[in-house]
């Protein structure tokens, strides 16, 4: 269902296919790249779970499955312990870098943000020719002037508390993922791969949200013993784990 969101990009290969079909591009259009700073660690747990519930509900997911998914997600987010310099810490905001659940979770959050605030914005509707996003990296073709782009950029920075954006723009070429996109004199976009092209660094995006939650919880549960007396299964809500175990057993 993440793939069905409006701006979703799977990887560089998918971006190359999309960009080659964007013709013609107005000669005065601006090529733009937006980046969300520190997205994984900036998502409040409550907001992220709400966005996940929104995404699942919009895809006609069974209400019981939605509740289970959000419960499992809450367990993952609220029990993210890590070791640093002989001390154990609990991460209280965002998802852990490298977690299987992090890419689909961040995608759900950004999709909710876009659907709620971006797509309804008058500047977006008037000036955006193309808007594609790979998790926290956004490619945009802006068919307005630079002043209107700067106003839209300030809107992005202020519209959603906790999200901070950076922007790069150029009338002729822009770097995005592993490509350099150029605009030729005939109004075509020409994606040129960099010499060392890595198609996808986040294969977790291909997994469904629920499967990612199961894998993450399964691996996390298996590693609890590494935390010694600081974390015990007895301190965790057992009902989600029983549901998880039953689901994993059915999967076999």
Quick description:
It contains eight helices and nine strands. The chain has 252 residues and is an alpha+beta fold. Helix 3 packs across helix 8.
Walkthrough of the structure:
The chain has 252 residues and is α+β, with helices and mostly antiparallel strands. Helix content is 41%, strand content 19%. It has eight helices and nine strands. The chain has helices at 12-20, 45-58, 63-78, 102-118, 122-127, 146-159, 209-222, 238-251; strands at residues 30-36, 81-84, 87-90, 128-134, 137-142, 165-170, 173-176, 179-183, 189-193. It has a four-stranded antiparallel sheet. A three-stranded antiparallel sheet has the order 7-8-9, covered by helices on one side. It has a two-stranded antiparallel ribbon with strand order 2-3. Strand 4 (128-134) and strand 5 (137-142) form a beta hairpin. Helix 2 (45-58) crosses helix 4 and helix 3 (63-78) packs across helix 8 (238-251). The longest helix has 17 residues, at 102-118. It is globular. Residues 194-237 have low confidence and may be disordered. It comes from Ranitomeya imitator. InterPro entries: RT_dom. This is Reverse transcriptase domain-containing protein.
């Amino acid at each position: 269902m993440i793939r069905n969101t409006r701006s979703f990009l799977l990887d560089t290969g998918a971006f190359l296919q999309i960009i080659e079909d964007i013709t013609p591009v107005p000669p005065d259009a601006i090529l733009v790249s937006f980046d969300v700073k520190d997205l994984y660690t900036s998502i409040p747990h409550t907001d992220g779970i709400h966005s996940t519930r929104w995404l699942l509900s919009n895809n006609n997911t069974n209400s019981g499955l939605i509740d289970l998914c959000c419960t499992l997600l809450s367990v993952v987010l609220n029990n993210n312990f890590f070791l640093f310099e002989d001390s154990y810490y609990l991460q209280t905001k965002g998802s852990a870098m490298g977690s299987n659940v992090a890419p689909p979770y961040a995608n759900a959050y950004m999709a909710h943000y876009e659907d709620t605030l971006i797509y309804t914005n008058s500047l977006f509707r008037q000036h955006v020719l193309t808007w594609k996003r790979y998790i926290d990296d956004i490619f945009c073709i802006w068919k307005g002037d630079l002043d209107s782009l700067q106003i839209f950029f300030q809107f992005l920075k202020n519209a959603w508390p906790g999200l901070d954006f950076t922007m790069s723009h150029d009338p002729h070429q822009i770097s995005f993922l592993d490509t350099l996109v150029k605009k030729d004199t005939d109004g075509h976009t020409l994606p040129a791969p960099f010499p060392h092209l890595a198609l996808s660094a986040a294969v977790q995006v291909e997994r469904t949200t629920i499967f990612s939650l199961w894998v993450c919880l399964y691996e996390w549960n298996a590693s609890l013993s590494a935390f010694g007396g600081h974390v015990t299964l007895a301190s965790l809500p057992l009902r989600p784990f029983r549901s998880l175990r039953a689901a994993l057993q059915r999967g076999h």
